[in-house]
Amino acid sequence: MSKRAVNKAQPPSEPKVKVLETNFADMKAGQTMVVPTPELVRSVIEATSEGMPFSLSDLRQELAARASAEVACPVTTSIFLRKLIVTEWSKHQTLLSGDPDISLKAMFPFWRVVDPKMPLYKKLDPAIQSFVLTQRDRESISQN
Q1: What is the pTM assigned to this prediction?
Q2: Is residue 10 in some structural domain?
Q3: Distances in Å between the alpha carbon of 76 and those of 13, 37, 70, 88?
Q4: Disulfide check for 31: which of 58, 70, 108, 119 has CB 3.0–4.6 Å away?
Q5: Helices marked H in 31-73
Q6: CB–CB of 17/32 below 8 Å?
């Protein structure tokens, strides 16, 4: 009997909800935690309104609510957010050869979640950091 190959690098297609056995980060043992998917992270960010800041905490709360959980995993949320930003930035750079306004409209608004004071911001390429600041300024989102 052969075993089916499993691609461990591929994220699950559905969010997983589990009960925490121990305290972890800002979460307590016994709480239900969603481990989101990149698609879920993207859909929450895409639903944000222009000019409205949306913190990482807000993102995690919305992810948890959509999955009927109490909390969302901070580690996977940050990892997927960062990967989505890098992918989106690459797409944006490709589209820049055309109309920059169309390029912006085609992007999901990750800059609404990325605050310059958060650790994730410091891990981003300087060009992305500058872009985040410009877009937050354009939407009149406070830089804190």
Answers
A1: 0.81
A2: no
A3: 14, 8, 16, 18
A4: 70
A5: 38-46, 56-66
A6: yes
